[in-house]
Each structure stands twice: as C-alpha cells, then as structure tokens.
Design goal:
- There is one protein chain.
- The chain has 764 residues and is of the alpha/beta class.
- The chain has 5 domains: 4-135, 3-Layer(aba) Sandwich (Rossmann fold), CATH 3.40.50.2300; 157-257, Beta-Lactamase, CATH 3.30.450; 263-378, PAS domain (Beta-Lactamase); 469-625, Histidine kinase-like ATPase, C-terminal domain (Heat Shock Protein 90, 2-Layer Sandwich); 647-761, Rossmann fold, CATH 3.40.50.2300.
- Helices cover 42% and strands 24% of the residues.
- The chain is built from 25 helices and 27 strands.
- The strands form 5 sheets. Strands 16, 17, 18, 19, 20, 21 and 22 form a 7-stranded mixed beta sheet that branches. It has a 5-stranded parallel beta sheet with strand order 2-1-3-4-5, with helices on both faces.
- A hairpin with a 3-residue loop joins strand 21 (605-611) and strand 22.
- Helix 17 runs parallel beside helix 18 and helix 23 (678-688) runs parallel beside helix 24.
C-alpha cells in the first residue's frame, strides 16, 4: 500500500510509558517517516484507564513494565474497551513466552527498544490492517443494508418481483406472488414460463431471450393460466442485471396483475348509462378518432347531441384547425397507454374552451389496441383566473422595477437640484441665468415624474386628507402634455371656488390618469381630451339610481374625449376586472375596475355616457366639503437656515451627491466630512463622535444599508441626530428614530438645510 495513504490522516497515539525520552523517541521516529500524530503519554493505571474510556485513539504503544503498572494488564483492558484499536508493545526486554502470550491476548505486534528501526514498519502494518478491517466491515454492512432494503421493498410493494437466471428459472419471488401463484419459496428453481398461457408462452420466452442477449429490458402483457383453469392478465417489465464486467447474469422481472383493469375495459359500454351522470365530458373513439360514445356532459359542454356526434371525427368536430397537439397526444398514448394534458377546443357555438383531457388506451382480449377512452374537464374559467393572477404578478414586478429605476434617477437628479442654486449665486450673465433656469425646471420636472413613478410603484397608500383637485389636475396635465401624442389637445376647466375633497391623493391621481389613458387610446388619430369639475348636490333621481349614496355636497369630475366611443353591448362590462377590448399585450383590463374601486372606497360613484364615433364622457362623483380652504396650502419659499461651524457627516454611495451636499453645507456655514458606505461612516463616527453634530444618511447602499448603519451609530451614541435620506422608500418604510428627520431624494439645497436644522434642534 502506498505510504501516502498514511500521510493523509492525523493519528491519535496513546503511549503507556514512564520514560519521557522513549516517548519523544517514538514521536520522532513516526514523524520522521511522514506521520502526523497527536501523542498522549500516560504512566499510571488511572491515567491509562481515563484515556481508554475516552476512546479517541487510533493506536496504543505500551511499555511492558512500568513502576506502578504493567503492559499485559493494560492490553487486557484495551481489548475490553477498544477491541479494534491496534496495540503494539515497545519494550526494552521481553521474553519469548511473554511475547507469545501478548500476541495470544490480542497484541498487534511487539518491538524491542534496541530494534527501534522495526517500530515504524510495525505501526504502518498495524494501521494498514486496521484500515482493511474497517473497509471490510463497511462493505459487509453496506451489502447487508442493500439486501435488507431490497427485501423490505420487495415485501412491501404489491407488484410481483422475480429474479430469474439466464434459463428463466426462478431464483427469487416476492411475497406478493402468493396472491397469484401460491407460499413463494416453493417456486424457487422452477421454470418461470410454466405458468404462462400456452398461447402467450413462446412470445414471452422470445422477449426474455432478447433481454438476455441484448441487455435491453422489454415490456409485455400476457396471461397466467392457473392450476384451477382461471386466467390472470399480467403486465411485466424485464431488466437485465450485470456483473462487474458488464455481462448479463440475471433478469429481474417486475409484474402487476391487471386482470381487473382488463375486466373494467370490457365493461365500459355496459356502464355507459352511469357515465352519463358524470360531470366530465366523456367520449370513446376508435383508433382513427371516430366517436363511438358521447355522454350527456359532453353534450352540455360542446353543444352536439350524441346522435350528431357519433361517427364524426373528434379532431374535425372539436379542433377546427391545427391538430398537432392531438396527434402528439395519440402518439404518446400508444407508447405509454395513458396520456394527460390540456387541449384547446371549440364548441358548436364557436366558443373557445380549454379542457384537461385524460386519454386511456383500451385493448381487446388479445391485447390489441381497440379504442380510446377520453375524459375532458372544462378548465376554461380556471385558466382565465390563472391568467389574471399572472397579469397581476407582472404588474407587481413592473412596479418593483419602476421603484428601482426611480431610485437611480433620484441619485442622478439630486446633485443637479442642489448644484443649480450654488451656480446661480456666483453668476450674473442673463444668458447663463436662463440656462440655469432651464436646467432647474428640467430637473424639477424629472423629480416630479420620478415621484409619480414611485407613487404608482407603491400602490395606494397614505391617510385621507383634504385635497384641492386643481393640484392633481396640474400634475396630470403636465404628464399628458409631456407623454401623450401631440395630436391630442388637452383642455381643463377647474373653477376657483371648487370644494375640497377628503381622500387619498395618490388614489385620486390614479383615477384621473387611468381615465386620461383610456381617452388617449380611444383617439388613435388625435382629438380633444377635457377635464372639468364643478360643485354639485345629488338630486332625488340620482339618489334613487345610486342606492347607498347619501345626500350632500359632491365634486363632479368630468373626463371626456372625442374618440371612437364604446359600443352599447360592451358598455355594461367596462368595469369588470380584466375585461378589455384591446389587443393582447395592449391592456390588462384593470384600469376602469381600479377606478371604480377607488371611487367606491371614497364614497362616490361613476356615470358614463358614450356614442360610437363621437366619444365618451365619465362623470366621477366624490363627496366634498363646501369650503375653499385646503390643508394642502401653497408652498412658500423657506428661509435658508445657516450653520455655525457644526461638523456634519454625509453618508452616500453616490460620489456626485457626496460632493455637492458637502459643498452646499460648507457654503452655508457648516463643516462637512463624507463616507461612501455604512462601514466607513461607523468608523468615522467612532473616531470623531465628539465633533460630529448630525449625520445625513442615505437609506439604500450596498453591503451595509442605511437601516443597519443607523443602528450601529445608535449603539455608539443613542442620541445621535440623523437625517434619513431615501430615493425610493417612504417615511413610513424607514425607521426614523426619535432624533431623525426624513428627506426624500432628489432634494434641493434649501430642503437639505431645513431638514438638517430640524434634526439639530429636535428635542430642544
């Protein structure tokens, strides 16, 4: 055996030796030969017993005689506790009788100390023999487990399992044979072909011989002819067993009794009356797809009566076109005797249906394919619901993608929005100022678009509050003018005395946008899109038409177009979820259903009028408060608070944002240092926590995000003041903390300064 085998493992050696020099000699001899060892030396009976009880040694080397203990007694103890661990005597003197006695009592070898050159070969031989014993035990145990597993499987399955020699004589039969051929042990050594029906015997013998010759398994059906004259139908699969050289030495045959199935096939026609009561559509065709049987449920599903369907070709009757899928099913059926899958079919009225179809090949008494039993379950509605679910998931994924894109855009826009005011203060040229005005307007417009993207990505959220409709219409107008075709003209009419709405601004924004998008799609050649609003109170007639509504003040929002209009037969269905008249891929059918749901949640209702070729108008009635004031007051330019030399730590993974934010703060009286990730921020804060008065912390960073960084900073200083910045999350989604202020990207210089001042003075 190669010496490298012994060098791959670390040996744990227990040495019973009172002379430390001899112990060091043993260790040196073994390590010189490349062994890696852990040597534990003991010299008393108690210490030796303790180590043996631990049982973690690979080899025991013992002196024969010690002052307080002797090697033969140690050998006896080791054989009792660790019978498989090699035991080698290494002694200065040992007589022949003692040596023989030690070997008789289980010692592996003995080596005289003055012949120390024999120690390493003795160790190598002992370890080799031990490894060989371990391998043999493992192989024997694995064989035992395999045999036991095969026995358990064979005894627990209902299938008939037989192992045959190359002449077809039985070597083994599973206990399940008892139910077919009688106690299985009595079959051992008998010819396995004796019980096969004479009409099938030679065919099966030939298949067996082919398996022996080629090694390829064969499947077959045949009959057992029992001693009492009865016949059992058997379905078998034979497989060759090969030896280590690849030669076929045995054949294992797995069979099942299919007599009952055969009988059931013969009774199919007799049970036709019962099949008529089944909920599934059931038909029987011949091998050419001609319909032989058609139950009542098939008539209900497809519309053809049995008299109309019988004799017709099933493919021609139900497919009306491409029969590729049906041909694939037939091919699979012939090979496997059963097939299951989905088929798209058409009814007598031309309605498309999807069915889960199960085909079973039926044989005659001679085993020849005779007919096909087809059971179809209508799953059209189920597939429609699945499609709706997948569409919803797709919309959710789009929202997640939009949120990620918006975050990146915010990081791009933030330096521009902070940098323009800094440039403006240092330049007086009118042309340059005009360029800066254009740059600032473009950045703000981009920020507004990103804000809208985030609103839709998050879905409806936020508490209800007072809202002035004119602000929402301005947002929608800007979006329409920037993204809709120029052939669509936009008009609005919002009176200055319009009442205040109570609701969710994101949801109301979605109402307007969905109605505008539908209007755009209805005007492919262009036209006029109008949004108007007025104060109204419900009339008695409207209260009767819209049950559940309460009398009171309403704001009525009207969205009209001059487009194609909605046909009368479609008008009643436009608010159904996923109903759409658009081509696949051009609409989900969720827009108007979403609008109606939002309106109902706000206590309102929708009226719609449309004329084909002239356009459509939607009136959205929403409860209002008869007041011209609104909580959403116009923004005023805040006074920019300056710093007084406070040191601020800016943490952001975007270099441009770090640079412009630092310059902004330094221009307004602060001192600033920067960190490009959370780990660097924590290190800087730990070093200068006495100086740093606040931290401007981005929420989305690689490796260590804002939330983890904030926790780490609070571990250092619980009262640390933090301005939490996010380009994607909302304030509710960011754990701000008692001394934190929230700031949304992209932010202006003034917004940064105000937020920082709020953080520094919070709690004072």
């Amino acid at each position: 055996m190669n010496t490298d085998f012994f060098l791959k493992r670390r040996l744990r050696v227990l040495q019973l030796e009172d002379d430390v020099r001899d112990a060091e000699l043993v260790k040196a001899l073994l390590e010189a030969e490349g062994f890696s060892i852990d040597l534990v030396r003991v010299q008393t009976q108690a210490d030796f017993l303790a180590e043996v009880e631990r049982g973690i040694c690979d080899l025991i080397i013992s002196d024969l005689s010690l002052p307080s203990y002797d090697g033969l007694t140690a050998l006896q103890l080791a054989r009792e506790k660790l019978p498989r661990v090699p035991f080698i005597f290494f002694s200065g003197t040992i007589g022949e009788e003692v040596a023989i006695e030690s070997l008789r009592n289980g010692a592996t070898d003995y080596v005289l100390k003055h012949r120390q050159d024999r120690l390493v070969p003795a160790v190598r031989r002992a370890i080799r023999e031990q490894e060989d014993r371990i391998r043999r035990r493992q192989a024997e145990e694995q064989l035992r487990r395999s045999e036991e597993q095969f026995r358990r499987i064979a005894e627990s399955v209902a299938d008939l399992i037989a192992v045959l020699d190359l002449e077809g004589r039985r070597i083994y039969n599973s206990p399940s044979y008892a139910a077919v051929l009688g106690p299985p042990d009595s079959l051992k050594g008998t010819d396995s072909f004796d019980e096969i029906h004479p009409e099938d015997r030679e065919r099966i013998r030939q298949l067996f011989q082919d398996t022996v010759r080629t090694g390829a398994g064969k499947r077959a059906e045949f009959r057992f002819l029992l001693k009492d004259g009865s016949v059992r139908y058997i379905e078998s699969q034979g497989n060759a067993i090969r030896d280590g050289q690849g030669n076929v030495v045995n054949v294992v045959v797995v069979s099942r009794d299919v007599t009952e199935r055969k009988r059931a096939e013969e009774q199919i026609r007799e049970q036709a009356a019962l099949l008529d009561k089944a909920q599934d559509a059931i038909c029987v065709t011949d091998m050419n797809q001609q319909i032989l049987y058609w139950n009542k449920s098939a008539e209900i599903l497809y519309g053809w009566t049995p008299n109309e369907a019988l004799g017709k070709n099933a493919n021609e009757l139900l497919l009306k076109g491409d029969i590729t899928r049906s041909m694939e099913a037939l091919k699979s059926l012939i090979g496997r005797r059963e097939w299951k899958g989905e088929l798209r079919q058409v009814t007598r009225s031309g309605r498309d249906v999807i069915v889960e179809s199960r085909w079973t090949l039926v044989h005659d008494t001679q085993g020849r394919p005779k007919s096909i039993l087809v059971v179809n379950t209508d799953i059209t509605e189920k597939k429609r619901l699945e499609t709706q679910f997948f569409r919803s998931q797709r919309l959710e994924n789009i929202g997640m993608l939009a949120s990620g894109i918006a975050h990146d855009l915010n990081n791009v826009l933030a330096p521009i929005m902070m940098g323009v005011p800094m440039l403006r203060g240092g330049l007086s040229d009118d042309a340059v100022q005009n360029i800066l005005d254009t740059l600032e307007r473009s950045a703000r417009r981009g920020a507004d678009l990103v804000s809208q993207i985030l609103s839709f990505a998050r879905g409806a959220e936020g508490e209800a509050r007072q809202i002035q409709l004119k602000h929402l219409v301005v947002d929608v107008e800007r979006l329409v003018r920037e993204t809709f075709p120029k052939s669509i003209r936009f008009e609005k009419d919002i009176p200055p005395d319009l009442w205040v709405l109570q609701g969710n601004s994101t949801q109301l924004h979605q109402i307007l946008l969905n109605l505008c998008v539908n209007a755009r799609d209805a005007m492919p050649a262009g036209g006029t899109l109008s949004i108007s609003a007025q104060n109204q109170r419900l009339t008695a007639e409207q209260l009767r038409r819209h049950s559940g509504m309460r009398a009171g003040p309403f704001v009525v929002i009207t969205v009209t177009d001059t487009g194609t209009g909605i046909p009368p037969d479609v008008l009643d269905r436009i608010f159904e979820p996923f109903f759409t008249t658009k081509e696949p891929g051009k609409g989900t059918g969720l827009g108007l259903a979403t609008v109606q749901g939002i309106v109902k949640n706000h206590g309102g209702f929708i009226e719609v009028r449309s004329e084909v070729g002239r356009g459509t108008g939607f009136k959205v009635w929403l409860p209002a408060q008869p007041s011209r004031t609104s909580a959403a007051s116009e923004e005023t330019q805040p006074t920019l608070p300056a710093g007084n030399g406070e040191l601020i730590l800016i943490v952001d993974d975007e270099a441009a944002i770090r640079q412009i934010a630092r310059a902004t703060l330094e221009n307004y009286g602060y001192r600033a240092i920067t960190a490009n990730d959370g780990a660097e921020a924590v290190t800087l804060y730990q070093q200068r926590k006495a100086e740093i008065k606040a931290v401007v912390l981005d929420s989305m960073m690689p490796l260590m995000d804002g939330e983890a960084t904030a926790r780490a900073l609070r571990d250092i200083a619980p009262d640390v003041r933090i301005v939490r910045v996010s380009g994607g999350a909302t304030e509710d989604q960011v754990t701000a903390g008692a001394r934190a202020v929230f700031l949304t990207k992209p932010y202006t210089a003034s917004q940064l300064l105000v937020a920082l001042r709020a953080s520094l003075t919070r709690g004072e």
